[in-house]
Specification:
Two copies of one chain form a homodimer. Chain A is built from 16 helices and 18 strands. By secondary structure, chain A is of the alpha+beta class. The first copy, chain A, has four domains: 86 residues, 2-Layer Sandwich (Uridine Diphospho-n-acetylenolpyruvylglucosamine Reductase, domain 2), CATH 3.30.43.10; 119 residues, Uridine Diphospho-n-acetylenolpyruvylglucosamine Reductase, domain 3 (2-Layer Sandwich); 108 residues, Alpha-Beta Plaits (2-Layer Sandwich); 97 residues, Alpha-Beta Plaits. The two termini of chain A are 26 Å apart. The model of chain A has no long low-confidence stretch (mean pLDDT 96). At the A-B interface, strand 9, helix 7, strand 11, helix 8 and helix 10 of A face strand 9, helix 7, strand 11, helix 8 and helix 10 of B.
């Protein structure tokens, strides 16, 4: 990067917040995809005003900017694919600014870690439901930019359902506010709505106002064992349609169950086609009992062979152990995991899992599946030997077929992870030319010089 | 309108669906604002393909289009302020296409009346919560375009919280899909999110996919009487923050109570500063009892002098009578109602009502208030003698001050009604130049020739 530019950035944020040494460039060149792209400089802005000055300058000088939270994304959203500067928000822009107990609202900077907010609000009897698997390290700015989901989405929805307002800096340096600390606000276009899930391509988010709930006082978990994955998937959508809305309704298929058992010897039902693990919550014992009864009945009506309710916290942890350790356990099937987060309408889950089985056989690759079936979101993991070129190709071909089957069933390429770089080549499977052209028009409306996180989302 | 254009439209939708006679132009020249703007033609398209052909033609010939549902909007969103054609969707595009019991989803055309959907889904044990006061005649297309709210927003949210996917025709005639029949979908920009509340300025919505809930089995209503409106407003936000989320938490101030009593003689507490009317719902008696206990305690801790729970349906109707008839009753205070739907964070309700009181005294106009305090939404009605120019001006000046007070308290110009023509002059009070310029950029991205509902939203 030209020293002229570096000097300008130092004059804005201080010399101690601008780096272009090899160590920093390397440290900020990767994310959870394990791909590498080196930026030309890494900048740690201290406030919105500095971000505004940096964007104004970059816009005038056509310098590319990639905003970055924790860099824990699975699709390369925070990777500087075209060089330029990394705007790293986790160092200074990481304050919880306000917990408004009167309106049940939190105001945070983008670099706040999801779990840090959860802990602070729960200590006050409040509740922030979105719980992506990365919750211990991913930032709320990243969560908003990717519209993160999680296990509790079945009942509580995803990040977008909790964003009330945003402050952001446009590529031209202008600061905008979008939304209000009110449930209702219909003045002007819903700019907050389009900034959510925009993967850092439209503006740099500088402040997030989130809706909080009162924390439910009680919760209980249960597990059901099913002979086949199809039966389990039918049980999922029929249970969800029966009038009960569990907080979570997660599943593991046979391959995932076997993997966890092989690694941890927990006495899991290794011959089961699938297990479902569910949690209900509420404020009264009667609510908990009632919900679990409905679920138990529905499970048994749909082929469940065993239903177990956790009696205490320890048993609950045991029930959830398999689900929590599925992701790391399935590595027994291959050194390289091609991990997708497709989502279909719940009633299409049986058909989806059938298609995945066919694809697995066709390409001779193992595809263990687990995930958030309560909202139709299945983590399909194509496992291959990463050093075997032929197998890797078969894996990638299998993924394309999984995407095609998903779209055919009315589903989406991504329920949680976003498009970024990884899924960009597949946008054409899901969107028409007119839809892609509209995306590009929206991008131009916000960022006419294309300086903000270009090359993402297949635009 | 040139006969050439009329002939083209007839060739697309059939002669029986194109009108440019005086009677039709007049019939489609008004909405609930009672303002009049005559269109040049009224067209009743029969399907999406016809809408696409009409938009393509209008875009090429720079003919202005105003999409219209029931014309029941309060801000002129459906008025053809600049002439051109009215695209009337209520005649043919009014089918409920699907009630998907497996995924709890409804698919409807834009001309379906809100209450018609509610009735159909409730007969199946399901529930569509958004209930604008216009629910008996307003269309779901209009509800989406204005992001309609209602009484049940305090617990269930507003229209945007139920829209899962849309089909729409862009001004260039291209058909796009936005969103999916899934809770999670993070592929591509959230185009559905920006079409909601865009007041027909970005695209013509042709199909709406809505989330449904299981219908709660039980509900119960109660009323609290308060000595002052400030006490009542404090009770509102403290109750909502105490861990209970009632379906509705509505209020009437003293002027509104007196107006209903004068008109209907129901034995209402005419000396009360305000009454709060609330409803809770759930599936178990224990839930209902528990919620009402929390509310009762919170009300009494905040100055409530009387709390009454409706014992049966009849008593419930009695409790709600005052709220349902407030709007028509307050006309005793003036022939012309300047009716606004400002919304503030709930904790600012006491301060807002105090400001309204001051403004009322300053301009010597009565401002009865009632509305959806559970979500901070207050219908402020400046009542004047419509034939008294001086009083009318005082009323309008008072409204400007109400807007200013609202914005100062972190609130919004509109919680439900949108901006349209009526509130367009006040956009500058709420939005910066940069924010207005961004709105215009978004408008241009969708509609470069500005043919779709121009002159709305102060753009």
């Amino acid at each position: 990067m030209k020293s002229l530019h570096v000097e300008f950035f130092k004059s804005v944020v201080g010399a101690e917040n601008v780096y272009d040494d090899k160590a920093h460039l390397l440290a900020y060149s990767y994310d959870a995809t394990k791909n590498h792209y080196e930026p030309d400089a890494v900048i740690f802005p201290r406030n919105e005003e500095e971000i505004s000055k940096i964007l104004t300058y970059c816009n005038e000088n056509k310098i590319i900017i990639t905003p970055r939270g924790a860099g824990s994304g699975f699709t390369g959203g925070a990777l500087p694919a075209d060089g330029g500067i990394i705007l790293a928000l986790e160092k200074h822009m990481n304050k919880i600014l306000e917990i408004d107990m009167e309106n049940l609202v939190a105001v945070v900077q983008p670099g706040v870690i999801n779990m840090d907010l959860q802990r602070v609000v729960e200590a006050k009897g409040l509740f922030y439901p979105p719980d992506p698997a990365s919750q211990d390290y991913s930032t709320l700015g990243g969560n908003v930019s990717e519209n993160a989901g999680g296990m509790r989405a079945a009942k509580y929805g995803i990040t977008k359902d909790f964003v009330m307002a945003l402050r952001a800096v446009l590529p031209n340096g202008e600061v905008i506010r979008a939304g209000k600390r009110t449930i209702k606000d219909v003045a002007g276009y819903n700019v907050a709505g389009i900034l959510i899930a925009s993967e850092g391509t439209l503006a740099v988010i500088t402040e997030i106002t989130l809706k909080l709930l009162a924390k439910p006082k009680l919760s209980k978990s249960a597990m059901g064992v099913f002979p086949t994955v199809q039966k389990a998937m039918e049980a999922v959508f029929k249970t969800m349609a029966s009038g009960v809305t569990p907080v979570a309704m997660e599943f593991l298929d046979n391959l995932s169950i076997r993997a966890v058992e092989q690694k941890f010897h927990k006495g899991l039902p290794v011959d089961a086609g699938a297990i479902l693990i569910t949690t209900v919550d509420g404020n009264l014992d009667e609510e908990i009992i009632n919900q679990l009864e409905i679920i138990e009945n529905s499970f048994f009506n749909n082929g469940c062979s065993e239903f177990k309710i956790a009696k205490d916290k320890e048993e609950e942890n045991d029930l959830w152990f398999a689900r929590r350790n599925a992701s790391q356990s399935i590595t027994i099937y291959g050194s390289k995991k091609l991990n997708e987060d497709i989502t279909v309408p719940r009633s299409k889950l049986p058909a989806l899992l059938e298609e995945v089985d066919k694809i697995s056989k066709k390409y001779s690759v193992k595809i263990p599946c687990f995930g958030h079936t309560g909202d139709g979101n299945v983590h399909t993991n194509v496992m291959v030997n990463g050093s075997d070129e032929k197998e890797l190709k078969a894996g990638h071909d299998a993924i394309v077929e999984v995407f095609k089957a998903t779209v055919k069933l009315g589903g989406t390429l991504s329920g949680e992870h976003g498009i970024g770089l990884s899924k960009a080549p597949f946008m054409g499977l899901a969107f028409s030319d007119a839809e892609m052209e509209l995306f590009r028009s929206i991008k131009r409306a916000f960022d006419p010089n294309n300086i903000l996180n270009p090359s993402k989302m297949g635009l």
